[in-house]
Amino acid sequence: MAKGQGASLDRKKLMKDPIMVTTIVVLIAFLTLFILYPLAILLVDSFVGDGKFGVSVFQRIFKIPTFTKAITNTLKVGFIVGLISTVVGLLFAYVEVYLRMNKFVGGLFKVVSLLPVVSPPFVLSLSMIMLFGKAGIITRHLLKIYDNSVYGFWGIVIVQSLTFFPVCYMMLKGLLKNIDPSLEEAARDMGATRFKVFSSVTLPLILPGLGNAFLVTFIESIADFANPMIIGGSYDTLATTIYLQITGAYDKAGAAAMAVVLLTITLLMFAVQKYVLEKKTAATLTGKASRGRMLIEDRSVKIPLTVFCSAVALFVIIMYLCVPIGSLFPTWGYKFFPLTFKWYEQVFTKYKGFKAFKDSFVLSLISAPITALLSMIISYLVVKKKFKAKGFIEAVSMLAMAVPGTVLGVGYIRGFAGGLFHTGILQWFYGSATLLVIVFVVRSLPTGTRSGISALRQIDKSIEESAYDMGANSFQVFMTVTLPLIKDSFLSGLVTSFVRSITAISAIILLVTPQFLLITVQINEFAEKGSYGLACAFATILILITYGSVLLMNLFIKYFGTSKKLQEAE
């Protein structure tokens, strides 16, 4: 009863705050227009695309052999990649948390966890082709194998596994750190072997977390567009099939129906991951370890695990180093010396490199602060306020995490190419810089929101209430009290958004017009043509830009972070 009265009072108080009400209305309009509306249009197109309401479009696309094969291929790749990434990520996390590592191995792990963040998602596909393709350094020039092909199923699986396993590694590392070591040590004291302790104590505790990591990787894999496009060859996946259906066959209704099929799969996986496994993980591991863990120094455990993980880490680093080195070769696969900067010259003199980097940089720079601020506002409303639309705002802002970029791209084409509901209203929006910025914002919003929610839950409500008591309005409280306390999350979200935007491709490749040149689209175009020198030069400069952004983030957090202030406030 008291809780109900309290919630009622909070809602009445909220309705008397015009700034807060306006913010909520604008947010709901934004989320509806740019997330729900494009997805709703896809559904409508799927059922009325052939002129009458029904399932004729779905019947037609399921009769296309390449599409039905693409579904099987996609699920097969997603399952294998999820399995490999989860196992390798678990081994990396176990080595870091449980074994006494030297600084060199620790350094390798840090580099491996950072590289996928600061590079485009398809860099490893380029490296794979250049090292192991028919004209590859290792296959052709070292092993004298002239007919090796890296294209197809295993090419996609290897590249995606190497790209996504660091995500599992970072997720599982946190889970393993939260296990109380006394549980495992009790089993050891009773005579259990280390393998028995792992299989009977550690593994059951992190099993929901393993499932969570698997599904996150599975979703990333089936939604991936760039890697299958570059290294897939004739092995079709759903993301590439949708792209070719709309750009090659010009079948917009068919592409919309295909996008709905892919979206249905990812939404189902996301629902299981979000509402089942995440809750089980939180319930299993309810807090931090009570004391320090005794690190394993047994050579029979330490040596094989450390050697395996170090070898994988070195291989990944070599794959990434292949890109800047490849950009200096005169002709990849045939002539390697003398090293030359001709591809960098051509990037800027022949292929409008300055425009590509300027467009990508400016659009990403505009979207980053919008995303960071929007994420913090949504987090603030979700954690600190009580109103009926709160669940809607949280669910829709997180929905973008489950929507593959290709699906979102098709949704924006169908939703805005002819204006809202094909009425011509907002038709100018399609093909504009505003559209690209909105796409970047929508794609990065879930990451920033989750970070903001975690930070805000650590802040005592009484700190903000005291500001309200002194006469401050909601805007003043948010800007002068709340935001400074979560500055770390804000700055982190700012740079994460910038990095994600400047390296994005799947959502924008269908939306970018000749008016704009974006780096990732250029890299993809040159890679498809086999111009690996140019692709590597573009990619190297992009990696340097994104790496510089991450360094700036660390400097910002180091010198302007508020961790100490937050602790004092609590």
Describe this structure in words.
The protein has 570 residues and is an all-alpha fold. Helix content is 75%, strand content 0%. It has 25 helices and no strands. It has helices at 2-15, 18-48, 56-62, 65-98, 103-118, 123-132, 137-142, 153-177, 181-189, 194-223, 226-231, 238-247, 252-284, 299-326, 342-349, 353-384, 390-399, 405-416, 433-456, 461-469, 474-485, 487-502, 519-529, 532-560, 563-569. Helix 2 (18-48) crosses helix 18, helix 13 packs across helix 18 (405-416) and helix 16 runs parallel beside helix 19. The longest helix is centred in the N-terminal third of the chain and has 34 residues, at 65-98. The protein is globular and about 75 Å long.
Looking at this protein, list some descriptive labels.
single chain, globular, 25 helices, 570 residues
